[in-house]
Amino acid sequence: MDEDAITIRLTRDQAFVLSDWLYQVMFRSDDLQGIVHDRAVWSPIYSISGTLDKALSEVFMPDYGPRLEAAKERLRADLYGESDRSAASGEDAAATAQVDQIERGTTGDHGESGRGR
Q: What is the pTM of this model?
């Protein structure tokens, strides 16, 4: 077994949004088993989630929700070149993201929702 560590670099906004998504999937929806069928994948998911939570002071701040929404807006703007408030609310945004992923050759399912601690 290869035990060399892998480093993944994320912006603070990417880390914050990913941390929230992982929290929603793992602890709020209790649907990790429904999303990730192979339990071997849970180990790296828990590791990533724990690392993000330790590194991000934002997850414990009282203005968590507004900070999260601001981070999402910045990421959407980086991805789409403009603010895209509709991305959180409709199928058009999901379809647009899927088309963008196909054009870039990167497909996969990604979710987003507020942690609201």
A: 0.65
